Amino acid sequence: MSSNINDILQKRLSKENLDKLLALSNHKLHKFVADSIQLCNPDSVFVGTDSPEDIAYIRRKAIELGEEAPLNIEGHTIHFDGFYDQARDKANTRYLVPEGQSLGANLNWMEKKAGLDEMSDLLKDSMKGKEMLVRIFCLGPVNSPFSISAVQLTDSTYVAHSEDLLYRSGYEQFKKIGDSPDFFRVLHSAGELENFVSQYPKNRRVYIDLEDEIVYSVNTQYAGNTVGFKKLCLRLAIRKALREGWLSEHMFVMGSHGTSGRTTYFTGAFPSFCGKTSTAMIPGETIIGDDIAYLRKIDGVVRTVNVESGVFGIIEDVNAKDDPLIFKILNEPGEVIFSNVLIKDGKPYWSGDGRAHPETGVNFSGEWRKGKKDPEGKEIPPSHKNSRYTICLKALANLDPKANDPEGVEVSGVIYGGRDSDTWVPLQQSFDWAHGVITMGACLESETTAATIGKQGVRAFQPMSNLDFLSMPVGEYIDAHLKFGKGMKRIPPIFAVNYFLKDKDGNYLNDKKDKYVWLKWMEKRVHGEVKALLAPTGLIPLHEDLKPLFKQVLNKDYAREQYDQQFTIRIPENLRKIDRIEKIFREAPNTPSIFFEVMEQQKKRITLAQQKFGDNIPPSALSVEK
Ligand code: SPV
Ligand code: MN
Prior knowledge:
Number of domains: 3
CATH topology of the largest domain: Phosphoenolpyruvate Carboxykinase, domain 3
CATH class of the largest domain: Alpha Beta
Number of strands: 36
CATH architecture of the largest domain: Alpha-Beta Complex
Shape: globular
Bound molecules: sulfopyruvate, manganese (II) ion
Strand content: 15-25%
Largest sheet: 9 strands, mixed
Number of helices: 18
Structural class: alpha+beta
C-alpha cells in the first residue's frame, strides 16, 4: 500500500473498520476507498463484512437516519424517492469513453475526462456530515466460475440495505481474489438530502467508466440509478462477457416442471413491465432469478446463474389473486422494503392491490390526499406507477433448489418477449439458433413503460430487452450471441412470446394467465413431445396440443376460433417490422453480414406466403413441420 493511501485510511477509519478493510489485501480496493474518501469527504466510514451484525447495522441506520421508516409488520419498511426521481434516468446515464474512441451514434456516451471532471465536481464533499458505507458483494453464486466480486461505496443506507437483500454477501469471497484487480466498483452519493430525498434531481448523473470498470452515481436514490450491481454493472458485465466469450443478459431464470418429475430450465428476456417477473413466478414452477443472468458455455452446454439473490419488483397489480406468493410475503413478517407506495397508519397501499384505499396518507409527493395535483396540474396517484418492493428470493416458497448452485443450471430454452400490440403471434419458435438470435432477439420491439422517464406506449427497438444497458454497438452485441451459439453440444431452442397482442379494436387477445400454457408447450417442445406448424416467421403450436394444455393448466376450453385469431400471421405488420429493424442495423457499425442474410430469407419467406395466402395467414393454411 502506498504511504498516501495508508495515511488516508489510517486517519479516516476507526481501528475496527480499518482492520476489516485491511483483512482484504487488495491494493486496488484500498486505493478506491482512499480516493473516494478524499473526494467525498465523509465524516466516518463503515466497512461491512458478511456478518449478520454488520448487515443489521445498515438496516438499523436506515431507520435511524430516516431513509426508511418502519411499517406495522415486523421487518417491513418504506422508502421514498424524490418526486422527480422515480425511474431510471436514461438521458443522464452515460458511458465514459477514453479520448479518440467512440461508441457510435446510438449509445449515450461522452469523453471520459470531461465526464470524470463533472463527476468530481458533483461528488466533491458530497458525504460531508454523513457516513460512507463500504459493502462487498458477489455477483452470481460464491465459489463459482460465474462469480464476479463487486464493491459499493455509498452514503445511502437505503441503497446499502437494498443491496443486502438483492446480492450475495461477498466479503469472504473477496478474500479469495487476493490482490486481483478483477472486480467492479461503484461510487454513489445521494447528494444533499431534503426530507430524506435527494434535493437536486436536475444534477442527477450516472456515469459508467468502461475502461476502469467504475460506476458513478450522484443526486439520486431510485434503485435503478443507484444500486450499482443491477443495470449499471450489467453494462460492465456485457463488455467483460464479450471479451471472455460468455453472455450477460437482462433475463429471468426459471424451472418449468414437466412430466415424470423433470425440471426444464429457461431464461427469458423481457423489457421492464412486460411480464418478466410474472413469468418467472408462474404457479407450480420454480424461480431462480427475475432480472439478470450470466450465461456460459461449459463442456458444450449453456449454463446460467442468477446474478442476484433478491427481487426489486414492480408492485402495481400485485394482489392475492394474480401473485399469491409475492402478495403473501408483502403481508407477513420478514424483510421487505416498499418504495413509493401510499402509506396510511403504517400500512402500504398500491394500485391494483385489490384493497379499498384510504383517501389520505403519505406518498412520493409527501402528504397526499385524493385529488392532489402535481405542479403541472396532473392528479397524483396514490402510489407511483413504478413503485416497487424489495425482497430476498429465499423468502419465496417457489425458490428453485438449484438457485445458488455454483455450477448454475443448464439452459434448455431461451425466451424473448416484448410489448407488441400488432405484429407477433403469442408464441413461436425459431428455426435455429441464428434465426432466433436475429429475427427474435435482435428484432424485439416493445412499447415504452413507466420503468424509465419519458412518454409511455411508444414502440421502441429493444434487442434482447437489453438495449437500455448495451455498452457496445448493437451489431457487435448480436455478433457475440451468434458466436456463443457455435460449438454447442446441445443448442437450446429460442422462442418468442407476445403477451400483448390486440385485435383491430384494441382488445387484448390473451388472458394474463395464457402464459402458463405457453410455458408448458415450450417445455414439451424442448423434449420433442409436440409438433409445430411451419409459419414463414417461425414454428407455431398446433391447436390440438394447446387445447388439452389449456384444460389441464387453466381448466379452460380453448376454442379453435380463439386460436385462429391469436395465431394468424399478420404479413404486412411483419414486413414493416423487418424494414424498421433492418434500417437500424444497416446504420449501426459492425453488424455481421449473416444478420442481413437471415433477415432477407425471412422477408422472402413472408413475401412468398403473402402471394399464396394473402395478408393474414390463418394457421389452417400452414403445414406441419417434417
Ligand atoms: C428494470 O427496470 O428493468 C428493473 C428495475 O428491473 S431497475 O433496472 O433497477 O430500474
Ligand atoms: Mn430489469
